[in-house]
Specification:
The chain has 422 residues and is an alpha/beta fold. The protein is built from 13 helices and 15 strands. The strands form 4 sheets. A 7-stranded mixed sheet has the order 4-10-9-8-7-5-6, sandwiched between helices. Strands 11-12-15-14 form a 4-stranded antiparallel sheet, covered by helices on one side.
């Protein structure tokens, strides 16, 4: 375990020994009003732009300009199968097989599409389990799906809440609640990482408990994909969805991704919202009246892919493939641990970290609660060139991202935070 030191010299030593430091220069860092690079800690909201994005997108613009419709077959990267160029690298990011992975749509659209297939409540198993502090879009999606099945969320929605006086959920409490409703749960849907607290859930244990209780288990990986070392296939998760504009640096409103476990790959009788891009590739352009879904996650596609969005994401996935999630995760644990150690030495009467201290229960985000605070502290940080995130009522989210944040960044942030609290 690294012994952290509260000094700029230590930060510089860590940066000098960082095997991933070269990747920082592969991203465009925003500048403050005085022309200096900002301290950017909001990769959990919008990742920085890889510098190669421009050339990736311009290649498709050039082919559109020169080839028009012929670009589907004759572009340098033929558009007809463009989404396939991203599959293997995205599968590696989430710990999946290529047949289990597809890049398509946006997160909540994908969530709805997969719930149509995998949320099939019965009179014996009508319940759905989510976090009480789930991201609102997930809550809206789940409740709307329940209503479509004639279920009242007030009666059949189980919301997991932390114990009194605690900010995060215990795995043992989640498993105990699952066991309490044994045989009665149709679906469990949790975030891989809670957007507010930064808590990473034990997805393997939750999936095992859910399956033992007869439930389908899915995860929203919006704050986990590109952040944690995921193993969706090995953990036996039924389905998952994620966005690609946070840690995956796909750009604002980037195309999303979906995972469907291999064991469901050829369950063609599953209820699904069909669209022509999910149709068997061999006969898709025969335009027949009968839908024949592709095996695997591709079979949940509806429409042809947004090429320009995928080009931007492809630029980032090339970097992820080069860096590798194990190495990124290893650096993340050190970087976030260093941030935590520095915060521990600052104004304990004013702030506390509500994210779990166990590195295995968090990604790179730390959520800092400001006791009795308001947005004024966040504004002071912003005025000093820190780009962080304020969440009502009293939390600043800070996410040192291993691809482009440094130990020097973390140290300078801690000094600015200390000065703003003085």
């Amino acid at each position: 375990m690294t012994q952290f030191e509260n000094s700029l010299e230590f930060a510089h030593r860590m940066d000098a020994d960082d095997g991933l430091k070269r990747f920082r220069d592969r991203f465009a860092m925003p500048l403050s009003a005085d022309g200096n690079e900002v301290l950017y800690f909001t990769g959990n909201s919008l990742g920085l732009m890889p510098k190669t994005v421009r050339s990736y997108v311009e290649q498709e613009l050039a082919d559109w300009e020169k080839l028009a419709v012929e670009g589907h077959m004759n572009a340098k990267n033929p558009w007809l199968r463009y989404h396939e160029f991203l599959t293997e690298q995205m599968a590696a990011v989430v710990g999946a097989m290529p047949i289990e992975t597809v890049v398509m749509n946006s997160l909540t659209v994908n969530l709805h599409l997969l719930m149509v297939s995998f949320f099939q409540p019965t009179s014996e198993a009508p319940f759905v389990m989510i976090e009480k502090g789930a991201f609102p879009s997930d809550q809206y999606a789940v409740e709307s799906q329940m209503k479509c099945h004639g279920l009242d969320p007030r009666q059949f929605l189980i919301e997991l809440a932390p114990r009194d006086g605690e900010a995060t959920l215990g795995t043992e409490d989640i498993v105990a609640t699952i066991e309490e409703y044994d045989g009665q749960i149709a679906m469990i849907l949790l975030g891989g990482v809670n957007y507010y607290t930064g808590q990473a859930f034990d997805m393997q244990a939750i999936t095992a408990a859910g399956h033992k209780a007869g439930a389908i288990v899915g995860f929203d990986l919006a704050h986990a994909a590109g952040n944690l070392h995921l193993k969706m296939h090995d953990w036996d998760v039924d389905f998952a969805v994620w966005c690609c504009y946070k840690y995956l640096n796909g750009g604002p409103g980037a195309v999303g991704g979906a995972f469907v476990h291999e064991r469901h790959a050829r369950k063609f009788d599953l209820c699904r919202m069909a669209g022509w891009w999910g149709h068997d590739k061999e006969t898709r352009f025969q335009m027949g009246p009968e839908f024949k879904p592709l095996p695997g996650a591709e079979g949940w596609q509806i429409s042809n892919p947004p090429i320009l969005q995928m080009a931007a994401l492809r630029a980032s996935l090339e970097i992820f493939a080069e860096a590798g999630m194990p190495a990124l995760r290893a650096k993340s644990e050190k970087l976030t641990g260093y941030l935590e150690s520095l915060i521990d030495g600052i104004a304990a009467d004013r702030i506390e970290v509500i994210t779990p201290r166990d590195p295995g229960q968090r990604g790179c985000q730390l959520s800092i609660r400001v006791r009795g605070g308001d947005r004024s502290l966040h504004q002071k940080l912003s005025d000093r060139g820190v780009v962080s995130d304020w969440r009502e009522p009293d939390v600043i989210r800070v996410a040192p991202t291993p691809l482009y944040n440094s130990f020097d960044d973390v140290y300078r942030f801690s000094e600015i935070l200390k000065e703003c609290l003085a």
